[in-house]
Amino acid sequence: MSRHYRIIDQEKLYFLSFSTVNWVDVFIRPEYKDIVVDSLNYCIQHKGLEVYAWCLMSSHVHMIIGSHGEPLEGIVRDMKKHTAKTILKAITDNPQESRKEWLLWMFERAGRNNPNNQQYQFWQQHNHPIELNSNFLLGQKLDYIHNNPVEAGFVREPQDYLYSSAIDYTGSKGLVKVKLIE
To answer: Is 7 exposed, middle or buried (0-12, 13-18, 19+ CB in 10 A)?
Structure first.
């Protein structure tokens, strides 16, 4: 992995994204989205994760994060592992999931093609963290994250998207405990 895409300085903020394998649109059901939200809040409360911005789209997550506890790469690794396992179980156990067989086939196929997995692969392995070392870059990534649902046509205004920190930047409280960038 290139040095450019590594978390080098634990004191810095990072923009990172991670996507489902093959960009599968998993996050169209609230129960799957809520697993990611719960995991973010758990990591904030118990692992020292600091979330400054986030947005959960249908197949991926964007975040600006830092840490005052465990190393950031370990938090992200554990969060991805936990959410993958929990979402796969939720898909398997959901009688309403009309795409169950196809979703599990996609994740199993990806898992077979990756020797790091035992059965399924849910998330793509890379995160491509980008150190936010200037106010310009920080502002650019913050705008990108919050405008992602607008660009996708989900909402007209960023703060109207429930699974994002845009609402927090309007003075209201969102689903995840966010530290505002001032």
So the answer is: buried
Looking at the domain 3-170, which fold is it? Answer: Alpha-Beta Plaits (3.30.70)
Alpha-carbon distance 48 to 63, whole Å?
15
Residues whose CB is less than 8 angstroms from the CB of residue 51 and which lie 6 or more positions away in sequence, other chains included: 40, 44, 63, 64, 65, 165, 176, 177, 178, 179
pLDDT in tens, 125-180: 888 899 999 999 999 999 999 999 999 999 999 999 999 999 999 999 999 999 99
pLDDT in tens, 133-142: 999 999 999 9
Q: Domain map of the chain by residue range?
A: 3-170
d(CA 84, CA 124): 11
